[in-house]
Protein: Deoxyribodipyrimidine photo-lyase
Organism: Mycobacterium attenuatum
Amino acid sequence: MTQALLWFRRDLRLRDHPALAAAAAAGEVLACFVVDPRLEASSGRRRLQYLGDSLRQLRDELGGRLLVTRGRPEERIPLIAKEIGASAVHISADFAPFGQRRDERVRAALGSVPLVATGSPYLVAPGRVTKDDGTPYRVFTPFFRRWGDVGWPSPARTGRDCARWLDPAQMAVEHCEIPDPGASLGLAAGEAAACQQWGAFLDDGLERYARDRDRPDLDGTSLMSAHLKFGTIHPRTMAAGLDRGRAGARSYLRELAFRDFYAAVLYHWPASAWCNWNSDFDAIRTDADSRANHRFEAWKSGKTGFPLVDAGMRQLRQTGFMPNRVRMITASFLVKDLHLPWQWGAAWFLSQLTDGDLASNQHGWQWCAGCGTDAAPYFRVFNPTTQGEKFDPTGDYIRRWVPELRAATGVHLRKGRGPSGYPPPIVDHATERAEALRRYRDLS
Ligand SMILES: Cc1cc2nc3c(=O)[nH]c(=O)nc-3n(C[C@H](O)[C@H](O)[C@H](O)COP(=O)(O)OP(=O)(O)OC[C@H]3O[C@@H](n4cnc5c(N)ncnc54)[C@H](O)[C@@H]3O)c2cc1C
């Protein structure tokens, strides 16, 4: 019987796993994961924890038959493939710049053993949704229309029992411990938790999703982002569970399309990970002096004196999560009230978020900064106080994360005035808004 290697990466599940189906069809399967020190260093403790917890569950689910080894994939994968005489190495495709380069190196190092990519972490993989002339979309709405037309297949029927798994215990390849940095996560990791969370959201959250998704006080979203990031569930499984006729289903699908859109944008413009997608913004003036550093520290630690901004930044620091509306408000504040480079904020988010994802994060930031695809017009500057009135009308979200304001009401809550221990605003919003618009006008 021939033997195949299944190399797990951002697909830490057994259900709806097209690459597993392809590997199982090829023969006996050895499951492996390579702990790449470069990713370990850039993951942030929470993502590393989520990864480790998910790997432990995957290993248990496979009865221990998961080989975990540390090193450069271009060295480890050919070594393991040789050890079992693999006819092929199977993967789910990775479209991020780092993953693409890594896979090219592994492909070259494997020589005559093919690296076979089947499936991707997306509903519609990057590169598949293009205009009639084959060029990529720069605007979400027409992308979304075409994305729906392209569509996706039904979930793959896979699971633990679909393959004959090889036992790595006797293999000469060096094993390593699964990472366990000791970070506390606000959510359970792994495939079972992802399925459970999704089921609970379908039962209790979907109906009110369209109405409540912008309300941080109501916890109106699915909390599926970290599961999607690590592929403990495939978005296709989720889409299959969405009854399109149900309230909330279309809005939810639209968000999954946003995820695909940003992955596609990063795929087509890999430099946009850290550079302005719209290079017109390269000339915008940002601050980087010692006062800017001081403001950045206040923003990171939730001590700007703007209650909604501080609530979001404290939630992020304490839990590794922040709701989308608050991500937009805190990002806008960093760029347009503090005049700091969006890259500073994006890097901080990536260091904290459990769901930190290069495509969604960098392009979420560029949207807020005005320099991305489809961007919010630069002159539209979020007012953190009125945003709070609109999206946290009772103030419960602020009170949950800013204990100094727990007893405050009315203007005292909104403006953070009065209570001792809460900092005064570090800037005047109206003044900084005018300054942001001045800097924007200087571009033309
Ligand atoms: C500045 C900024 C940074 C962001 N950084 C990330 C990030 O690092 N990782 C990440 O997954 N999302 C990021 N987002 C998008 C969004 O905020 C999160 O996906 C969402 O808050 C996750 O919570 P949820 O799963 O409850 O979302 P839900 O509202 O339940 O959405 C369902 C899923 O759709 C996708 N989605 C929703 N909104 C977006 C969006 N605007 N862009 C792309 N995908 C979306 C996510 O996969 C999400 O899990 C960012 C947005 C902004 C404005």
User: Anything to note?
Assistant: Strands lie at 3-8, 28-35, 66-70, 88-91, 115-117.
